[in-house]
């Protein structure tokens, strides 16, 4: 590694203006530095390499080029051997006006992400230099600062989670963190620039568990509406905001340091806002495991789960009340949330079993495709946890069979949609032939799951299922019934 580094250092003299592939050189140097033995990583040699890298970074105002990012990678690699040396080089550019400051902040953010256990004990030195600058940062650079703060806080959480590490913050660091928290909350989140607001909320989402409980409580009336507003934006923005909201609720409701900072009544506006968003982000795409919509859906459900862990009965009654509303998005959201939470709050919700079954029965005749889809999925979850028996179980099975009986001819005939069973002007969600095909697939899969994985359903399915598929309107489900029998 030393020979490689020496050769690369020689080649790099004159920088990117004299040598075309500086990015490649710096990446090779970064790999060589990481491969160095501790004994070979002499401080003065590393300092010389660090100065070559920083010289390249400060030579241009544009950080978004390959060779500068490669130089940053080299500095992070140097930091893994000698964090104090690397940070000394970075700190040289913190005093006085310099266009290189955002680049240096990004390097510290990358270093924190890569070497959390080495970075966190040095966070105090970083904040000492950043705090005097923060108040004068303009909107254009605020996202860079906010992203760095986010990464530093994430590193602190990794440090705290490491069993061999002690508490990373003394009183000075706590004071610094509280000051940064207040600035982001009261100034940056009020920016007209969406990028500034979003990056600030993302940073605050990592800080909420690190500041004092009194400061967090006083921040809730301001920070919650800001996060909820961003949750309503497009999926990229909504995912980030929902993740931060999840962290906020977790710190506010489930902290080991004391009782919940919010009463359930105070959470109503949060839950009412999130329910329709749950229905919007439900995805049935087979590739949805990589979709931002599904990730957003999961974060929203984490918010409900945290609330349910703090207030299980209150949340259950809230969701049941929304199932009785006339708003389709709220009903679909409530059904999807019950499906998600039931296995996780099974013991807490045991006394609400009868109410849950009655709600499902009351919705079986609803004509909204979205509601039917959500019901079909919920029925399978309820059956798998023995919530359905007797007549209610037969009604649920008939519901699944009825939609499994949709034939290919039905799906190829546009007149299918004119059937009064598929008409409902009260709801905005439109029925489509593709949607009916999706509903049929969900119900067929649900029936197979009932037959194969839930032994308790055998007494309900047989011979009831055979009697059920005899009427003409259900004969389309015969193939599914035969699969279940086999």
UniProtKB/TrEMBL annotation:
Signal sequence extent: none
Keyword annotations of the record: Repeat
Domain MROH2B-like N-terminal HEAT-repeats: 37-208
Gene3D superfamilies referenced in this protein's UniProt entry, alphabetically: Leucine-rich Repeat Variant
Any one Gene Ontology cellular component term annotated for this protein: cytoplasm
Pfam annotation, one family: HEAT_MROH2B_1st
Name of this protein: Uncharacterized protein
UniProt-listed SUPFAM superfamilies: ARM repeat
Domain MROH2B-like HEAT-repeats stretches: 213-479
